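Morning F.,

Quick status update on the modeling queue. The single chain you submitted on Monday has been processed. Sequence for confirmation:
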Amino acid sequence: MKLLLSLLPVLLLSAVAVFAQQNPSSQLYLARAGDVYISEEEFLRRFELLPSFGRHRPSQLEQAKGELLYSMIAEKLLAQEAESRMMDREPSLRGSLDEVRKMLARDELYREEITGRAAPDRAEILRGMSRARTELVTSFLFFQDEETARFVRGRIRKGGDFDRLGLDSSLHALRDTAVVMWGDADTAIERAAYSLSSGQVSPVIAAGQGFYILRLESQRQNPDVAAMQEDVLAERVRTTLRLRKEKAILDAFSGRVLKERKGFAVGKTMKDLTGILARILPPHGTDTIAVLSPELIDSARILGRSLLGEQLAVIDSESWTVSQVLDRIALKGLTVPLGSPRRLMAALNGQLRVWVLQELMAQEAIRRGLDTVAQIRDRLATWKAYFLAEAMKGKLKDSVSVSEAEVWTYLRRLDTTVSVPQVRIRELRTASLDAMQEAFADLEHGASLVSVIRARSNDPEARSREGATLFFPITERYPVGATAWRMEPGERFGPVAVPGGYLYFELLEKKSGPRTLDSVAAARFAAATTEMLRLKQNRKVSLFLARLGEVRGVDVFEDRVKMISVTPVPMMTYRILGFGGRMFEVPFVERQIDWLSIESPSSQISP
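Structure tokens below.
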């Protein structure tokens, strides 16, 4: 299929030449949606880094490009409308955008302070490649206590003493052998081992949970590395060196930045929260861990409702309540150990420590103004448009409801054997509103509805049967049938404008279809209600968009769309953030093209 440009030729003006004359940089843009231009760069990022609308087939790439572009246009139109309604001031939207701002700024801080300073030089890479080609066979002594390790090392004068030395059980020492391979061992062990000559004994080395003394026994070629191509090995060594340097720089930087900052958990509140979570976790059986799902967190909120407003974490001048931390736990789906309250508290405290450190780094990044860097600013603009569009769609969808009569109509259309509920009413019809007012005056003076119908109804047939109707399906005589179904016998409603005048009625009886109480039919009705609501919501959003497109204006620069090259590989791409965590690289684009084939309504659609 070709691009969807032919669907709406009147709305989507082909204004490439004029625009190019007015905007020399027009070649950078694919479309205009109101006051916003969609750039090639944003389009490519959101096309290539997200699952697509059926682009796994090369023949469908052009169609996929068109669907994504028009969906992005819809997003920009909705975002501008939401901003004009000042929805960007709503706390929930500002909170979401602030979280993205923090994550992007924190990531930029990591790139500036850590990644940018961790690149190894050529000499380091060559030395690493040389060591990676060789693996070392070592003997070692392990001690839990540094003083004991240094005492034993002092008694080793030469390599032979290493084997002859007797180790008393009171020293709590371990003798063994190990193969040291560059890149896989503890860096302190590795550094010491590769500096030894054959038979030479190392100084005491602090590594892991204790202290080591090494002796180099022999060295040999590493067969896995020997088979690698030169450039592959070089890249592997470069990555290992970079990660090690990043860690060293990160430790130093974190210590320096956090030295004067304040971040901690409130002990008593943490203990109380741990007790609540322990009560809602499953019993410790064959499973040793559990995931704190949103459902479990909801249970924790009920049990600990008096605790929700308590301060749990302090981050400089800010603080998080128990409720806010529970939100984070539910979003993450935190995995915790079962059976031990102490281990549960340790897991919670460890995760909270990570979040606090990340928050402090985000504050530092924003203090430096890194959220205003051009690249971050552009990404924030994309996320803001996404959040605004979602808020606008939410507002539109929340204004839609579905009546039971509409659902029964939908079910009846799908299956003509469906038995629709019925109602019977007593109705008063008048030709004018004044005549209806006179009938109301009679009722207020004590006249019965039957007598008023006999005297004032303009429908001879209705007068003859005292206004009483036969049973009729609630899907008929809209809105009378649907309204009557929501009433109770004896209740009255009106006046309602109907063809030929006005109607006032009283509900006499309801009659449910024989299937309405059946459990299968009830499930079917619920599913139909959900589907009907979805269809009505989508219809309202599409009508709203069609109107916005006409009012705000839309241009698509066809030549640029056709020229832009894309790949058929669908993917969901995450950004791994500096200082931990991850986020979607770009906001998801919801397929939104139905508005193209809808005639714009003559007036604005109200949310």
